[in-house]
Design a protein that fits this description.
mainly alpha; 29 helices; about 0% strand
Length: about 550
């Protein structure tokens, strides 16, 4: 008995100090020596989660719930049911999460108001976001702030700020939204929220920063939370989540080699613990591989992200585009955009512009660019504004309005430098080279193109280096003939190709006749197949 007591005391102390591995070792050992009191079994169930033992954590948590019910500890049972609802929610299983939340609701209906009622209100609002929009979230935010004051519970005030911040950020008032989300993080870092709920607040804040393109705030909160995590020992979940977000930022900055292995490991570690963030990790892994030219690896990563419930667009469509499957890429993004609200469409519209231009559909690209500009005006974040300016510059270059394009390109370059987005900066230099070529300034064009190629090379963006430094064109085609064939292979009509290249339809006819003779085909279908075989669809 003395051994059991000593091991229990050591395990409890380790838990209190945030030494999750030590707590797991000692509490597990104590369980082998004898039956754990319910409170200690509860500690073990929680610590299992933080060291990455999801299945063990959930099984023990159910045992704890059943014990609380049998012992008549209804507040304890309600609290455990709420924790189980939260953990199943962040695993991505909304049906099981809903079942546990409803158990908590049944118990709490007969209990006086307490902190658990606030947690229930928060969970209800988070789940309802996907089904009923932001209305219930706003109502619950007010209720939670009032409960926080009445019960002297800063954790409920924090959760209320999360909901109201989300509502404002998603309805065109990101300044007010971020101010509330920033305030919601303060109790998290002060240790005033249970670790499980603190993790949900952190993920929500970082995800909102990423969704709205506020990378500076994302960097600041990721760094602050990593510093806070240093107090814990042997913890997998928090450190893994922070690592994913730090590596996302590292990818933006262009250190793909460092990021690739780390983000794949983090995705694997978080699978089953936080499937939302694990899905984000695999999506980012797919993006790294796509940009480095590993099409098979990118597809596998996107498939894994999809299995975990993550959105795989626009990356999957851009992968199709790089492989010459332009129609498939266009169809995929059209489907992804269908029924989207303005905020969730923002990340898709720039790539949709790129794909429309690849098809020679400048009118469609101009329309999509206008939609992105409207979103950027409404939400006014640096990321959205820069994406919109980038899209507009690409449309202007495609329309041959090179002089108008140059100042727009300069604004895009400034925006991407502020975001520390190196790959996108290289794309702006590439567009600037096209604009200078259109104006007859070959020296400036060569300088910009050399800068783009140098950045692509430093990043390891092999397909872009090959595309810009590809040597002689196959089949003896001229640069103009290759451009015509690229558009035709993408599904453009002769009229579309003529509009995209600012030449007459008769000139397109003449180019096609020369192309057919040079590559020895007799139909547009055969010419398109030849273009894809010789990878012309990805070349300038």
């Amino acid at each position: 008995m003395d051994d059991l007591t000593a091991v229990l005391d050591t395990g409890r102390l380790a838990f209190a100090h945030g030494d999750w591995q030590g707590a797991h070792r000692d509490l597990s050992r104590a369980r082998e020596l004898g039956t754990l009191p319910t409170a200690d079994l509860d500690l073990l169930s929680r610590v299992c989660w933080w060291v990455g033992r999801a299945r063990e954590s959930l099984e023990l948590s159910e045992d704890v719930y059943n014990r609380f019910e049998q012992e008549g500890d209804l507040p304890g049972a309600a609290n455990k049911a709420l924790n189980l609802g939260l953990l199943w929610f962040i695993r991505g299983d909304l049906v099981i999460a809903s079942g546990w939340v409803n158990r908590a609701r049944r118990i709490l209906a007969d209990l006086p108001e307490g902190v658990e009622h606030g947690y229930l209100r928060y969970l209800d609002a988070i789940v309802e976001l996907d089904f009923y929009g932001l209305g219930p979230a706003r109502e619950s935010a007010v209720t939670l702030r009032e409960m926080g004051q009445r019960l002297h519970a800063p954790q409920l005030t924090s959760l209320g700020l999360v909901l109201s911040g989300l509502a404002d950020a998603h309805t065109g008032n990101p300044a007010a939204g971020f101010a509330q989300l920033d305030e919601a993080m303060l109790p998290v870092l002060a240790g005033q929220l249970p670790a499980e709920w603190a993790g949900d607040v952190y993920c929500t804040v970082i995800h909102t920063c990423h969704s709205l393109g506020d990378l500076s705030r994302m960097r600041a909160w990721t760094a602050a939370t990593e510093q806070w995590c240093e107090q814990f020992h042997g913890e997998v979940v928090y450190s893994g989540i922070c690592r994913v977000h730090r590596l996302q930022l590292l990818c933006t900055q262009g250190d793909w080699s460092t990021a690739e292995a780390g983000i794949e490991r983090s995705g694997a570690e978080l699978t089953g613990l936080n499937n939302w963030v694990a899905g984000e990790a695999y999506y980012q892994l797919g993006e790294i591989r796509r940009l480095r030219g590993d099409a098979g690896g990118a597809r596998a990563a996107f498939d894994r992200a999809r299995d975990l419930g993550a959105e795989t667009q626009p990356g999957a469509a851009l992968l199709d585009l790089a492989g010459g499957h332009v129609r498939e890429a266009s169809a995929a993004l059209r489907a992804a955009l269908a029924g989207r609200d303005r905020l969730s469409s923002a990340r898709l519209l720039g790539p949709a512009v790129e794909i429309a231009l690849a098809q020679g559909r400048t009118d469609e690209a101009d329309r999509l660019c206008g939609e992105l500009e409207a979103v950027a005006t409404e939400f006014a974040t640096e990321g959205f504004r820069t994406w919109a300016v980038h899209a507009r510059s690409a449309v202007l270059v495609a329309q041959g309005r090179h002089e108008e394009a140059l100042p727009v390109l300069r604004r895009a370059a400034v925006g991407y430098r502020a975001l520390q987005a190196r790959y996108e900066t290289a794309r702006i230099y590439e567009l600037s080279a096209l604009a200078h070529t259109g104006l007859g300034d070959e020296a400036a064009a060569e300088s910009d193109l050399a800068t783009a190629v140098a950045i692509y090379g430093e990043l390891g963006a092999a397909p872009d280096v090959a595309r810009l430094d590809a040597g002689p064109l196959p089949g003896g085609l001229t640069a103009r003939e290759a451009e015509v064939l690229r558009l035709i292979a993408a599904g453009a009509s002769n009229r579309d190709a003529a509009a995209a290249l600012f030449i007459s339809a008769k000139t397109v006819d003449r180019h096609l006749a020369n192309i057919f003779a040079k590559i020895d085909v007799s139909s547009r279908t055969a010419a398109a197949a030849w273009a894809h075989e010789h990878r012309l669809s990805g070349r300038r």
